[in-house]
Design a protein that fits this description.
GO terms for molecular function: 8-amino-7-oxononanoate synthase activity; pyridoxal phosphate binding. It contains 15 helices and 14 strands. With about 400 residues, the protein is α/β, with parallel strands linked by helices. It binds pyridoxal-5'-phosphate.
């Protein structure tokens, strides 16, 4: 038998991706505030998760930096896991602040949303657990489920009749069941019905609710605590996960949960234990941003108005659209159509990258307009003028 070299196999796979129009590359470009500079052209950035525009808020940043330089807490690395010598006081301060914001018993901070989602469920589940996850949950949750000993089933996206049927059939056969969902979904921008999920949970004595608020934290709810705050169901959520890398313009993630859950995670969660903790300087920045969260209502309202306008305009151009958030997909269909659409937008001054399988289901390649509070209503009108009708690109 003849052996192919590793390089030959990988090169062939790359060639195949290229021929399918599915090859990924790290995008070039300089990111500056609302704009991206690519090949000497300044384009409005429609692909960022900086939902409140805080990453370009120079007042907030220079204010923070000027105070920071005077303090002794200017630590660029924790140099260790929190379980060893990396547990700087800033983590405790941030966790108290978060628990307080949610009026919950406790919070635990992680290096990223990826660490949170790939670590929490593998820690708290065992072979007698069942996880019922929405078909469209984020890759980081899927990877967590691959590491978990639990039995895993997926319910059709936002289909709570399907979920209910699975619960009735399988909940009695397992010690505990975890319903896992995002609140705002990454790819379609649609939302889970958290009130209904909270009701559903109450019908069963052994069901727990895990909600990933990555796209809603900072954006939804009176104080920016997420869709759970907006729906008034934060108390029903057993594992409420949020991330700092999107609207909070920082890095890291958290879960709010009961104290015993937190204690357990500190003992068992591998993506917390076996990794270097976030740099204290970064944690201080997160604290700074979160202290401003409740006064960002104006930005949230602007983003909401902007999103409604764009959602309607995209639907009017024939793309159909189930979004109810600041994430507005423009589903082109084929990879080629999505790439073409991205090119047209670029020509007219907008930076929006095409999304293709496996990130989205086959045949639903798309642009994903990711709106932020840094985008004006005038910008929105120009974006919509630039977007061709669906019938013109198919
Ligand atoms: C971005 C995202 C994550 C990952 O968070 P990071 O902090 O970027 O690792 C997790 N879940 C969802 C739904 C996300 O969109």
């Amino acid at each position: 038998m003849e052996f192919e070299t590793l390089y030959a196999r990988l090169d062939a796979e790359l060639d195949k991706l290229q021929s399918e129009g599915a090859l990924r590359a790290l995008p070039a470009g300089k990111f500056k505030g609302r704009y991206v500079k690519v090949f000497g052209r300044k384009l409005l950035n429609l692909s960022s998760n900086d939902y409140l525009g805080l990453s370009s808020d120079m007042v907030l940043q220079s204010d923070f930096l000027s105070r920071l330089c005077k303090s002794e807490k200017f630590l660029m690395s924790s140099s260790s896991s929190r379980l060893l010598t990396g547990n700087f006081p800033q983590y405790g301060e941030l966790e108290l602040l978060i628990a307080d914001m949610y009026r919950k018993e406790s919070a635990l901070v992680f290096s990223s949303g990826y660490h949170a989602n790939s670590g929490i469920l593998p820690a708290v589940t065992d072979s007698r657990s069942l996880v019922l996850a929405d078909k469209l949950v984020h890759a980081s949750i899927i990877d967590g489920l691959r590491l978990s000993k639990a039995k895993v089933m997926r319910y059709a996206h936002n289909n709570y009749e399907h979920l209910h049927a699975l619960l009735e059939k399988y909940a009695p056969l397992h010690t505990e069941v975890f319903i896992v969902t995002e609140s705002i979904f990454s790819m379609d921008g649609d939302t889970a019905d958290l009130r209904l999920l909270a009701e559903l949970k109450k019908e069963f004595r052994n069901v727990y609710l895990y909600v990933d608020e990555a796209h809603a934290f900072g954006v939804r709810g009176e104080n920016g605590l997420g869709l759970s705050e907006e729906c008034g169901v934060s108390d029903e959520i057993d594992f409420l996960v949020g991330t700092f890398g999107k609207a909070a313009a920082s890095q890291g993630a958290f879960v709010v949960c009961r104290q015993d859950i937190r204690d357990y995670l500190v003992n068992k969660m591998r993506t917390l234990i076996y990794t270097t903790a976030l740099p204290p300087v970064n944690v201080l920045w997160t604290i700074e941003v979160l202290k401003h969260f409740d006064c960002l209502e104006k930005k949230r309202r602007h983003l909401d108005a902007l999103s409604s306008f764009v959602r309607k305009a995209v639907a009017d151009k024939g793309y159909g659209n189930i979004s109810s958030s600041q994430i507005v997909p423009v589903v082109a269909g084929s990879n080629d159509a999505a790439i073409k659409l991205s090119g047209i937008m670029r020509e007219t001054g907008f930076y929006v990258l095409p999304l293709r399988p496996p990130t989205v289901p086959e045949g639903t390649s798309r642009l994903r307009l990711s709106l932020t509070a840094a985008i004006t209503m005038e910008d929105a009108a120009m974006i919509m003028n630039a977007l061709p009708e669906k019938s013109d690109i198919a």
